[in-house]
Amino acid sequence: MPESALRAPVTAYPHPTAARRPVDWRSHAACVGLPDAAVFARRPKDALPALRACAGCPVPRYCLEAVAPRESWFDGVCGGRLWRNGKEARIPDALAAEAGLPASPVPYPSPHPSPSPYPEELS
To answer: What are the start and end residues of every segment in region (Disordered) (predicted)?
Structure first.
């Protein structure tokens, strides 16, 4: 590797998806200005203000890309979902309906699907 590459500032090597992401995407996030207690809440009831904000957020995809909740064991609200230790936490339907939240988003597919406890029927 050339020595000049070792001295190059970090900004000389942008993130591979930086071209697709608006530079100021965080300023467009609906959660700007919300208290940290709502954004980093672990309980569904405490996270309702952030979840409501996410419902109308224009940049949830960028949020999920930047935070990477599964890889970082994130606790809080990101991309319209509540996360605990990097796993998506379920919002009780009654609480979601009471708060006026949209229907729960489709959960992410599991990278390791568990085998079915029922054997497939032979035809």
So the answer is: 102-123
The β-bridge relationship of strands 87-89 and 76-78 is unpaired
CB atoms within 10 A of CB 80: 20
Kindly report the three-state secondary structure assignment for every residue of 47-97: HHHHHHHHHCCCCHHHHHHHHCHHHHCCCEEECCEEEECCEEECCCHHHHH
Structure pTM?
A: 0.64
- Token couple for 75: 């606790």
pLDDT in tens, 22-55: 567 888 899 999 999 999 999 999 999 999 999 8
Q: Left, alpha or beta for 100 (phi > 0: left; psi -120 to 50: alpha)?
A: left
